[in-house]
Amino acid sequence: MARLLHISSSPRGGDSESLRIAEVFTSAYEETHPGDLVQHWDLWDGSLPDFAVGARAKMSVFGGHAPAGAEAEAWAAARRVFERFDSADRLLFSVPMWNAGIPYVLKQFIDVVSQPGWVFGVDPDTGYDHLLAGRRKRVAVVYTSAVWGPHLGPDFGSDFQSTYFTDWLRWTGLTDISDIRYHPTLTGDRDMARQAADAVARDVAKSF
């Protein structure tokens, strides 16, 4: 039995296009993978720890020391978040565009789980090791925006959303990535854009 984990970063509930498309994906996945487990992780639910002390613990680890006291507690809290993320065989992220980038809660998630020995190693001569590589994990990402669109010029913003997040995924070693996009723009046909995004979501889910 495989486990699909949907990690969502929109707080907008029923008004969220990224969550709506993710529901289309998970419904199609459940229909075509009846023995698999599908779970949802709302990053706004308070489960992400503050990482101020954790950042100090990270530097202790980099220095070859075991975190102690409050640092050890923060490191353990971060580890629990990483294990929840890492335990999934399939990952679905729903990512709305915020100010040309990603919601800050998703950046918090990235900063909590991206730790030495968990997500990456580093060698002074060869650079980073991508520790999630070669584990046959698959990733699907729902990218949505309201103003920016791939065919528009810079007056309508820039895409630091998918460029940043895809780069992070590949840096971890997760390279089997499928994108599902909804970018209707201010003057586009939203119904047509929804239908197109839903069709891609279903197609990806069926073979995921």
Automatic annotation (TrEMBL):
Entries under SUPFAM superfamilies matching the protein: Flavoproteins
Start and end residues of each Flavodoxin-like fold domain: 3-199
Record's keyword annotation contains Oxidoreductase: yes
Keyword flag Lipoprotein: no
Catalytic activities: N,N-dimethyl-1,4-phenylenediamine + anthranilate + 2 NAD(+) = 2-(4-dimethylaminophenyl)diazenylbenzoate + 2 NADH + 2 H(+); 2 a quinone + NADH + H(+) = 2 a 1,4-benzosemiquinone + NAD(+)
Keywords assigned by UniProt, alphabetized: Flavoprotein, FMN, NAD, Oxidoreductase
GO molecular function, one term: oxidoreductase activity, acting on NAD(P)H, quinone or similar compound as acceptor
Cofactor: how bound: Binds 1 FMN per subunit.
Record: residues binding FMN: S10, S16, E17, S18
Cofactor(s) the protein needs: FMN
Pfam families (alphabetical): Flavodoxin_2 (PF02525)
InterPro entries documented for this protein: Flavodoxin_fold, Flavoprotein-like_sf, FMN-dep_NADH:Q_OxRdtase_AzoR1, NADH:quinone_OxRdtase_FMN_depd
Domain of life: Bacteria
EC number of the protein: 1.6.5.-, 1.7.1.17
PANTHER family noted in UniProt: FMN-DEPENDENT NADH-AZOREDUCTASE 1, FMN-DEPENDENT NADH:QUINONE OXIDOREDUCTASE
Subunit field text: Homodimer.
Biological role stated in the UniProt entry: Also exhibits azoreductase activity. Catalyzes the reductive cleavage of the azo bond in aromatic azo compounds to the corresponding amines. Quinone reductase that provides resistance to thiol-specific stress caused by electrophilic quinones.
UniProt similarity note: Belongs to the azoreductase type 1 family.
Protein name: FMN dependent NADH:quinone oxidoreductase
Lineage of producing organism: Bacteria, Bacillati, Actinomycetota, Actinomycetes, Geodermatophilales
Gene name of this polypeptide: azoR
